[in-house]
Amino acid sequence: MTTSLMTTLMTAASTAPTIHVPHIDYLSILPMVIMLGGALVLMLGSSLTKKMVGVRVGTVVAATVAIAALGAALVQWHQVANHGPSVTIAGAIAFDGFDVFIQIVVSIAVLLSALIGDGYLTRENIEGPEYHVLAMVSASGAMMMGAANDLIVVFLGLEILSIALYVLAAFNHKRAESGEAALKYFVLGSFSSAVFLFGIALTYGATGTTNLPKIADYLALNVVASNGVLLGGLAFLLVGFGFKVAAVPFHMWSPDVYQGAPSPIAGFMASVAKAGAFAALLRVFVTSFPTARADWQPIIWVLAVLSLILGAVVALNQRDLKRMMAYSSINHVGFILLGVEVCSARGVAASLYYLFAYLFLSLGSFAVISVVAGPGDSATDISDYRGLAQRQPLLALAFGVLLLGQAGAPFTTGFLAKLGVIEAAESTQSYVLATVAMATAAVAAFFYLRVAVTMFSPVGRSGAVPTSEDASQQDASQPVPIPSPDASSGDGIASLEVLTDAPPEADVIERGIQPVPPLTATAIGLCVAVTVVFGIIPGPLLDFAQQATLLIVGG
Amino acid sequence: MSINPQWYLGLSTVLFAIGALGVLVRRNVLIMFMCVELMLNASNLAFVTFARTMHDIGGQVLVFFVLVVAAAEVVVGLGIVVAVFRRRANADADELHLMKG
User: Fold this and answer.
1) Which of A54, A197, A420, A542 could bond B43 through an S-S bridge, CB–CB 3.0 to 4.6 Å?
2) Could you give the C-alpha distances from A524 to A294, A516, A521, A531, in angstroms and in order?
3) Best of B12, B16, B50 to disrupt the A interface by mutation (most A CBs within 10 Å)?
């Protein structure tokens, strides 16, 4: 009976038409699979054990997974360099230098944020492995965006990245700001995803496909009949991307979210979310809509100029370091958009290099901010940084280097990154854009230096504050010298010390020292080392970014 | 009876516009949330309409991806809404003003 049934089934199966399954090159998605698999194993493992899994276990697993993903990405790089770029899974995933570059960037970011998060979670008494699980899931979304060769895969990557990040923003349930930040991020994030999706629908309607190379082929061969639909699609896609990378005028969520989210998560957003969103933006616009560039280039131009100017100018009068970093990241977005606007291999290489450099600068900066913020993640005002150099000279030095890097000082990767995008802009005669970028870099240097000066100015001697603008920023708790007839005749600083009875110097130093967890210190050290070493020896990294661009599908 | 596909596209555009306007104008977080769902489903209608006019099954398959994503978003979104508004009487977005902006 059963055997006859089996034979009937088998004959039926053999006569039925075979199902064609697309070929899957597993190497091309290996880092993504490792990242997602690691997250699932950690989550499942922690729910199967009786005891609550400690923070340290999660950190070890996340760091191991990140290093494994990095290793897989390096194997991928070897493969791509030897055999050239290819597409897989029915053309939905691109396997090229650009993709591998993003996988490497995201893997490193996960490693660093796991190290930084460990200290944060221990200090805030947040148990469980969820932080690391969500970070890994989010990172796999960013990796998918880097590899996506189809608009719907971009959308899926975007959502995997964002949905995990919404939860991460709300992670510190003891702070009301954290939940508020998550809700703002969620509402605007899902709004922008919906706009992006409508853009995909319109593009699909105009070209008949969502596959990026096929869109490019279609646009190269046909004059689009319903041009309005295509232009509408392009506009909606740009708005969606604009929200995700926080380009002006779609930036309003970012300062609140950066301020409210836990500090390590703010760094994660600034590095991973931006890397993923820019990867998709570059691939969609530069490789699949180059024929429509006359339509989208002016919009990117405007976005870049607005982001550059607003980011730098508004950051000037921020007192909260995390808000300041949010506006500074808007300024950086303007710089990276320069590379998009150029729409050439050179521009893409410059943008990629910028993303790589900014990863270390932003994560390192937020690591320092996370340490200085202290228990409760609350001390993020600029006055909390006064005298940091006296209290913790190494931490202040590291932060100083990272700030100089963000400002684009020579001998740091930040300088080369800014130089790269500006040169790329000049190579296509975008002189106005290049000039605006340079001017805002000078403005931005001012607020980075303000923080540096605050850190290195001595505590308790308010007369010795070096700049006037700094003096106006003093908060009320600082000792204010009371002019008296006796003091006016004596030596300036000495008399001030006499006047302010019981100098609070020792007290402030005692109170302010925040322990730097060893893992966070390692992460900060790594960020500083990469910023300086590749700033002095720029060759390898610049070549890397350039080769990644040459090995691009359809590029 | 046959209907011109333009009508469907028009409907999807109108739904999308209502959704977008709702997110920007309404202050209740749950209603903003429903408006986002409306925008996603407007996109779905556009996908299906285009797929029908072009006789391409691909566009209809995309709708399933969107449905899954929308469901995931609902889960996370409602979780955050509950976590934030647990101690409050209503779900008014204007009451979230710990941070300027």
Assistant:
1) A197
2) 43, 10, 5, 11
3) B50
CB burial string A485-495: b at 16+ within 10 A, e below: eebeeeeeeeb
Q: What is the mean pLDDT of residues A331-352?
A: 92
Strands A86-88 and A93-95: antiparallel
Q: What is the pLDDT of residues A419-467, one digit of tens each?
A: 999 999 999 888 999 999 999 999 999 999 999 999 988 876 444 444 4
Tokens of A89: 């899974």
Nearest Cα to Cα of residue A350 among A433, A273, A241: A433
Domain count, chain A: 1
- Residue A148's alpha-carbon distances to A165, A197, B30, in angstroms, are 19, 15, 32
Amino acid at A370: S
A20 located within any domain: no
Tokens of A282: 């570059």
Does the CA dihedral A355-A108-A160-A148 come out positive or negative? positive
- A465 is written with which tokens? 């504050």
Residue type, A360: F
Chain segment A294-321, per-residue pLDDT in tens: 889 999 999 999 999 999 999 998 999 9
pLDDT at A76 over 90: yes
Convert A93-106 to b/e letters by CB count within 10 Å (16 or more is b).
bbbbbbbbbbbbbb
- A249 contact B CB<8A: no
**B82: closest CA of chain A, how far (Å):** 10
Q: What pLDDT sits at residue A58? A: 92
Would you call A256 an interface residue with chain B, using a CB distance cutoff of 8 Å? yes
Query: What is the residue range of A378's domain?
Result: 26-457+514-550
Tens digit of each residue's pLDDT (9 = 90 or more) over A363-412: 999 999 999 998 888 888 888 888 888 889 999 999 999 999 999 999 99
Q: List the one residue out of A81, A545, A164, A220 whose CA is nearest residue A355.
A: A545
Q: Name which of A183, A209, A255 is nearest B29 (Cβ-Cβ).
A: A183
* CATH top-level class of B5-95: mainly alpha
Output the pLDDT for position A35: 96
Whether residue A293 is predicted with pLDDT greater than 90 in this model: the reply is no
Mutation site, A197, A200, A236, interface B, largest B CB count within 10 A: A197
Residue A408 near residue A415 (C-beta atoms within 8 A): yes
Residue A529 domain flag: yes
Give the integer Cα–Cα distance in Å for A408 and A402.
10
A496 in any annotated domain: no
Q: pTM for this structure?
A: 0.87
A508 within domain boundaries: no
Chain B CB contacts of A208 under 8 Å are 54, 56
Report residue A159 CA to chain centroid gap. Answer: 16
